Amino acid sequence: MDAIFLQILNGLDKGGAYALIALGLTLVFGTLGVVNFAHGALFMLGSFCAVTLNRLFNLSFVRVSETEKDFLGNPLKEQVPYLQEWFGPQVSGFLLEWSVPLSILLAIIVMAAVGVIMERGLIKHFYKRPHADQILVTFGLAIVLQEIVRHYFGANPIPQSAPAIFAGAADVGSWVGLGENVYYPWWRLIYFLFSAVVIFGVFAFLQFTTFGMVVRAGMQDRETVGLLGINIQRRFTIVFGLAAAVAGIAGAMYTPILPPDYHMGMDFLVLSFVVVVVGGMGSLSGAVLAGFLLGILQSIASMNEIKSILPGIDQIIIYLVAVIVLLTLPRGLMGRKGVMEE
Fold first, then answer.
1. 3, 102, 196, 331: least CB-packed within 10 angstroms?
2. How many CA atoms lie within 13 Å of 117's alpha carbon, on the beta-carbon side?
């Protein structure tokens, strides 16, 4: 029971990443009708927003030390961070320690701008083109983005640290009555809660605001909304920026769990598209449900007891579930009639 409980927790934080990426994918497809194969690259760019902010906080200059000298009595040179010089050691230490959570602010601004530029500069020209054309052009864009990242940041993973207060493990066993020796990393719990808050925020935004109401109406009947004098295209552009921002902050917060590298976007992209298909094309709630469900199943399948019986099952479980679901429910778990059926 202890092992199963820990694997369920693993699945929840992994499923949170799947659900956030799939949510953005579904949002873009539902509003614009575009199959965006560059969405995984947006997750990757968000993770490198965290890397960039950490490096900015670590920028330093060289000055001659007033106290340190070498054995000949000559003053030594020392590296002094700009943050320490401007704000003092306490503030600079706090900013460095909390650089990953603070990178959410940078990721929102940068990724929303990237999303709007992508939509206005490229995606809008493929609205009425076949889905195959959309896949090819966005997949090519994803490759370009990852090669740019590799050029500036290198090919090796870049570890990022969570704040020290979340560096340990929580005694989750005592919370649910499994004993006092069942521990789970704090940051993974934080990530699950973070993903739940973001998902709730997106759904609340779409459900309870006038902007969201218009977007949902446009998803159902774009032409009719346009006839009412509403610039639905401008709102859909904002939605694309919102989807990019969601993917970006998901990537930024995931960096302490998985050190970012230039290829991580492709790794998450394939799994997230499977999540979207299993949940149902065009269904936001289906994408979230399938994300957490497949994350849990993948984690349970990675247990040694199961792999000893079915070797390699953890590598194929998501695709196996996708095949079973699509054979029994061709539209996915919560798919809408008419979506990609013409």
1. 3
2. 9
- Helix-helix angle 264-279:284-301, to 10 degrees: 120
Span 62-86, pLDDT tens digits: 877 767 776 666 777 777 888 888 8
In order of 2, 139, 173, the CA distances from 182 in angstroms are: 7, 42, 5
Structure tokens at 57: 């906080």
Strand partners, 81: 60
Q: Which amino acid is at 71?
A: F
Nearest one of 77, 15, 282, 41 to 149, comparing CA atoms? 41
> Left if phi > 0, otherwise alpha if psi is -120 to 50, otherwise beta: which for 290?
alpha
Give the chain's length: 342
What span, in angstroms and rounded, lies between the C-alpha atoms of 334 and 277? 10
In the block, which residue shows the tokens 């990443």? 17
Bridge partners (DSSP) of residue 79 are 62
Q: Where are the domains of the chain?
A: 2-59+76-328
179: confidence class by pLDDT, cuts 50, 70, 90: low
273-319 confidence digits (pLDDT tens) = 888 888 887 788 888 898 999 888 888 888 888 888 888 888 888 88
| C-alpha to C-alpha distance for 141 and 135, rounded to whole angstroms | 10
- Residue 251's Cβ-side half-sphere holds a number of Cα atoms within 13 Å equal to 38
The SS3 of residue 258 is coil
Which stretches within the chain are classed as H helix? 2-32, 39-57, 82-87, 89-97, 99-121, 131-153, 172-176, 186-208, 210-220, 222-227, 232-254, 264-279, 284-301, 304-309, 313-328
pLDDT of 151 over the 60 cut: yes
Structural contact between residues 83 and 209, judged by C-beta atoms closer than 8 angstroms: no
Residue 182 · residue 172 · CB < 8 Å: yes
